[in-house]
Amino acid sequence: xxxxxxxxxxxxxxxxxxxxxxxxxxxxxxxxxxxxxxxxxxxxxxxxxxxxxxxxxxxxxxxxxxxxxxxxxxxxxxxxxxxxxxxxxxxxxxxxxxxxxxxxxxxxxxxxxxxxxxxxxxxxxxxxxxxxxxxxxxxxxxxxxxxxxxxxxxxxxxxxxxxxxxxxxxxxxxxxxxxxxxxxxxxxxxxxxxxxxxxxxxxxxxxxxxxxxxxxxxxxxxxxxxxxxxxxxxxxxxxxxxxxxxxxxxxxxxxxxxxxxxxxxxxxxxxxxxxxxxxxx
Length: 281
Known about the structure:
Elements: H1 2-23, E1 31-32, E2 41-46, E3 52-60, E4 63-66, H2 68-71, E5 79-82, E6 95-103, E7 118-122, E8 149-154, E9 169-176, H3 178-185, E10 193-197, E11 213-216, E12 222-228, E13 240-244, H4 249-259, E14 265-267, E15 270-272
């Protein structure tokens, strides 16, 4: 009887450890990003504490793209940007200060977070390298079809009430058509929003992923910015809602050029200004 009790305890301990391992390191049921897989993803932090607050992407050495709700109530000196690493580190040496914040003038959180997009101008340029690269923007008004495969990357909570991930996570999702997205949310969403998740739920964005990128699967083209989702995170039948980047490419280009005319951006197949450096050597 004692031997059976010991065996039962051993089985329970093994089951518990396996369960803990299965839940560790998730975005919401995602996996760790591979080395250098998302060289354009950066972390927005509280400047005083170094705590991660939102995701973002590098557009070029001076400009960062994120969600308006991440920065609309902040001043530039309250935020900094950690870049060039998939690991969050409060004492990182790869941190850039923010010089200016540009929130879209049409941002309305009370209207389903329409125009949830913002640009950050950095106080100093970041050096491009194999692990620091610009993201590609889609063509203006480019349509991402329903059922397309996409990837979300971020450091957000592994579940509602969970913890921020220290290692950058990724998860493969399905894009939903505008019609299906609105039907699932039982409200008419805006044409400038895009949805992604899984029909059965269980995978997707959570708190801390806001401002981060949704990318076309197998590419470095950013089609969405994490905006909002129904809680608890990844709850079916509600896919996550993203700002659709293609609706704002003209605004991005206009804003960047008005502040730094010589600055270049990577838009679709057309290289505006210069191409990103070839760092394969």
